[in-house]
Design goal:
The termini are far apart. The strands form 2 sheets. The chain has a two-stranded antiparallel sheet. It has a two-stranded antiparallel ribbon with strand order 3-4. α1 packs across α9, α4 packs across α5 and α7 packs antiparallel against α8. It has one domain. With about 350 residues, the chain is mainly alpha-helical.
């Protein structure tokens, strides 16, 4: 059962979570309390995702919300190989055939498809084998039509990073992390007003049923609750070496706390930000997995401090390449720069 110290840490998790740089401009007066930042990630398309802790206890969460093997328990990657300090240049989209673009998107949709209760991740690089033959045919036809009508190059932009990402996803931990990232991004894309009904239908079918924890609008999803709960367990395990609160009864208790926080959020904008936390949790996991031991230690110390992780710029070329692609960029940026400026100004008022 969850002790008083456990509940105390879980409550503080909302504040600690504000150290993560989120992708939406929200009320500066409530950002820290509700576990998200008041800044939009956004003057550029860079993935400015912060935060980590000890080399333990981040759990994989599959499409049904169940968790399995730990993430981040393997040997840390070299920072020289994974964290880039050089200036990020805009990726060029290779001139490729429609068939290659369709094939890459089918592999992405196969990657995010629901997985068994065992939590077994799909094997690459042909993730499209997770789809049925009928789905591959129908999705393929839909994608061809979407690509033909795509004037912004959103669909073709996958070709700039998919081959390199396939290599990165040979690491099973990062495969699970990027799977969560794309599930979050696709959910946001499917909710966009300017996305066609045909694309929405394809995305919803690929992702599987959306499980709603609290009705909206906007609704709170089970995916959001699992992301918050995973983060809370991670923080507790770091603060209490050798102990864990990662048990079903504790997760159920924390789920109730998240629901209560959601209901009491001051605005729909705040509730939307809470519901989109899975994106930031996935970014957190990717950065953590790629950080070296020294960087992890610094992150762990900073996240437990009053200043949090604000001001730390963790660069990750692969993650930035994905998030800066036109298909995802506008969702990562969130609100306009003008609105971001207003929030910053509001945050300076005493």
């Amino acid at each position: 059962m969850c002790t008083r110290s456990c509940i105390k840490v879980l409550k503080k998790a909302f504040v600690a979570l504000s150290a993560l740089s989120l992708s939406f401009a929200i009320s500066a007066a409530h950002a820290s309390e509700w576990g998200y930042d008041d800044q939009a990630v956004g003057q550029s398309a860079k993935a400015e995702s912060l935060g980590d802790s000890k080399d333990a206890s981040i759990k994989k969460v599959n499409a049904s919300g169940k968790r399995n093997a730990k993430v981040g328990s393997g040997k840390a990657k070299s920072s020289a190989a994974t964290l880039t300090q050089s200036k990020k240049s805009k990726p060029d989209v290779p001139a490729v055939s429609t068939n290659m673009t369709v094939d890459n998107w089918l592999n992405l949709l196969g990657l995010v498809a629901p997985i068994p209760d065992s939590g077994q991740l799909p094997e690459g690089p042909r993730y499209l084998n997770q789809l049925t033959e009928d789905q591959r045919e129908r999705f393929g036809n839909t994608l061809k039509n979407l690509i033909a009508q795509d004037k912004r190059g959103e669909f073709a932009s996958i070709n700039a990073y998919w081959k390199r990402l396939n290599e990165r996803m040979k690491d099973v931990d990062q495969r699970g992390n990027y799977r969560l990232l794309f599930r979050a991004l696709l959910s946001m894309r499917a909710d966009a007003a300017d996305v066609s009904d045909a694309e929405k239908e394809m995305i919803f079918e690929a992702l599987g049923p959306k499980r709603i924890a609290e009705p909206g609008p906007p609704p709170l999803t089970e995916d959001a609750i699992h992301a918050y709960t995973d983060m809370a367990c991670f923080l507790y395990d770091y603060s209490h070496p050798g102990k864990t609160v990662d048990a079903d009864d504790n997760r159920e208790l924390y789920g109730l706390m998240v629901r209560d926080k959601f209901k009491k959020a001051p605005s729909d904008k705040d509730r939307v930000a809470m519901n989109n936390f899975p994106l930031n949790w996935a970014k957190f996991r990717i950065l953590y997995q790629d950080a070296d031991e020294e960087k992890r230690k610094v992150m762990a110390e900073r996240i437990a401090s009053p200043e949090g992780l604000k001001g730390m710029n963790n660069r990750n070329e692969m993650l930035e390449s994905v998030l800066s692609a036109p298909s995802w960029k506008r969702f990562v940026i969130g609100k306009s720069i003008a609105e971001t400026g207003q929030n910053k100004k509001a945050n300076t008022v005493e």
